[in-house]
Structure prediction request, 169 residues.
Amino acid sequence: MQDLGVRIRRAIPDEWERVRELRLRSLEDAPEAFGSTLERESAFEHREWVAWIDGWEGTRNVLYVAEAERDGAWVGMAVGSRTGEERRAHLYAMWVDPAWRTRGLGTGLVRAVLEWARSWGARSVVLAVTESNDGAARFYERIGFVDTGLRHPLRDGSPVSARVLRREP
Prediction:
């Protein structure tokens, strides 16, 4: 990523306001790509944003950001999450700013989550992508994820369906 002028790194709890800004940008950019909404997360407070970084109740999270070296702007993110002692990791909230897409940042963010999952012995990493988002599905398949055949609603009340993809870390 250095040759792109971007570094991938872990966010820390003190950066919760920057996480908030980045996540809200992602929800505004792609409202039908995530299991949550801009309206819902705009109401989150400090505690909820720190949880994105450290983990929700019963989970442990790691949040990676793509940070532009020239100005420190955050231009992408991905969250790895683990529930209890489960040997499966989840990849959530993967997003790259449209101006930075097709440069390998998404691959770098996913690889960071995969390395984190390997570090604690995960057997698999799973994610969900909306069925209508063929570009994202092709991206994940290019980096080794396979469609499990499982489907679920994107979120409560949504007519959008998501497919579950999986790979070994």
User: Anything to note?
Assistant: The chain has a mean pLDDT of 94.
